[in-house]
Amino acid sequence: MSWFEFVLQQLITGLTNGLIIALVALGYTMVYGIIELINFAHGDLVMLGAFLALTLIGACHLEGSPWLGLGLMLIAVPVFCAAVNWTVDRVAYRPIRHAPKLTALVSAIGVSFIFMNIGLFWGGAPMAVFGGGAAAASPKDVPDLIGHTNLLGSGSLVQITVKDALVALVTIPLMVALTWFVRRTRIGTAMRATAQNPMAARLMGIDVDRVIGATFIIGGALAGMAAVVQSLYYNTISFQMGYRIGLDAFTAAVLGGIGNLPGAVLGSIVIGLVRAFSDGYGATQWTNALVFLVLILVLVFRPSGILGAHVREKV
Amino acid sequence: MAIERRTLAWVLALVAAALLLPAIEYGIHRLPLWPWLMKWTYVAPLMPAIFAFMIVSLGLNIVTGFTGLLNLGAAAFVAIGAYTYSILTCEIYPFRLGWVLDEVIAGGRPSAHATWLTFVLGTMAAAGMGALVGAALSLPTMRLRGDYLAIVTLGFCEIVQDLLKNLDPITKGTTGINPVPHPPNLPALAAASEGSSAFIQHATGIYLYYRDATPHYLLYLLLMLGVAMLCRNLRRSRIGRSWVAVREDELAARSSGLDTARIKLSAFSWGAALCATGGALIAALVGTSIDPAYYDFQLSIIVLCAVIVGGMGSIGGVILGALVMFGFNGIVLVRLSDALAGSHTDGNVLTTPNNWKFLVYGLALVLVMRFKPEGLLPAREVRAEMRPPRQAPTVPP
Questions:
Q1: Quick one: how many helices (H) and strands (E) in chain A?
Q2: Is A49 touching B (CB cutoff 8 A)?
Q3: Percent of residues, chain B, with pLDDT higher than 90
Q4: Domain covering A3-301: architecture
């Protein structure tokens, strides 16, 4: 493999990883943009979605009809995640909306712990896909529904697999749709207004609580999509994976400028690429440290992220 | 600002109770009453680790409670303390503290003074290292606003973990450094020791055993009380008042001529120094630096929760919060697991108490934030702010 092919391969891997992170990061950054809450439970929501996806595979025997199964999962899991996210907002965050910011953050950490514990119990479910429920805490294998045929032909050293294509085919249209939604629809406009100034939005007759609820629903649905794509792409899930996913997505959102949708995608792709190249050069054990080093360096020179607007404090 | 008499009476009563706890428990333990209940409620061997975590929580309280900077990486400083102490005292390294006393003065025999010297110097070095690293971290992050700072501290914790894991020759990778010399015994208490094993719990569910910690009970309690006094005095000093000024309104503080950059740096250094002290005490207690995976995000979060659930900025509150959070982990779950051990062997995930830990933590956090967001024992000024009096203030004529 020449250096050119090597770089090309890492670019492809990095982009794919980045797109998966971006789905999660978008949910993070939308919620942050609108209520300034770091939703720590978001990564664990993805984990719950992944467990539902595996349950569906096991219960409906989806290995037999992979494309139908993919379609089913891409509908059921986002609906589930959106419903969970909306409920959590309603029960845990809405009653403390006017308390100091840290209060809601701690609440979100609490929700994340609860999700993680539910995931642990879910892993003990007596199903064949969960290993019969004997070792609840161990990682679970997800059956390889779509295979990894190389689209460039089996002779090519550079690999673009069906999985890479699946990731791109799911994520890119979603991002386009999200952009359209936020820019062009009534509720999207209401979201941007609420993000800018909730008080003024309320005075203009916007039902702020409904807008926030809608944000949680969209963020949850994106998390559900991410859960399906992620579990089919990496083929392994565990009840503790939410932390890692959430951390990557949160880092990406901050790197791009938190609250900024294109920034979240850009940040995710940067992180995906850093990870891919670091792993590619054999420095796997330093990858995490490298990602945060990049983050700290970027923040030293641009304290509001790559695309974040510089906020000047007013007196 | 004088202490109210009632508060003082409470504090003194609680301190006295804490001081006498091992003796009382030892006495009760001798009585031929309900032996199974006694075994369960015998908590003194488990307390020293909790005192150490109280010191860690008091350290985070300086950064997050007094100065209002959200720090999600307290575990990094605990790790730095534990590893500094371990590297300086472990016999596998050539430059062991206490070597001079052992080899030169006592002529090759381990001396009692060397134990003390090792413990004191090692803990001080850990605190110093913590302060340095805290200052170093705060330099590049001075300009960051709240949530950006939070992610940097979180990332810093990951970097520290990776460094400890990967710098094998110094840190012994994932096995951790051991043996680390134990803290000195206070002679009066060594006699009361029962010889039962006590343990500190690993976040990932592994138990690390160490010998009965009752002999260190008094030492650790006194250290914790000393740190609490230090925090109280710091809070009332010029530097503590400037921390609170930055928390309340950074812009106003700067306009009043305060050097906010220096104030944040000092808060980070003090906080990190105390966290590292706690880390050193834990390493001494357990007899190992544990392993890098122990100092993870979950540990940082449990410390943060101790501060917030107890009441940010309130010293008594933080101590109570640490007792609740770490006590649940280190006493309730441990004793519950003891009690249920043997009664289940089917490996069902639901019947292991430890598996319910995060559900209980999570529910506790959500409920406390929902119904008592100022914490269990809030600082006076915070309570005044978050629970304004019901009636509108009367307008003077």
A1: 11, 2
A2: no
A3: 30
A4: Orthogonal Bundle (1.10)
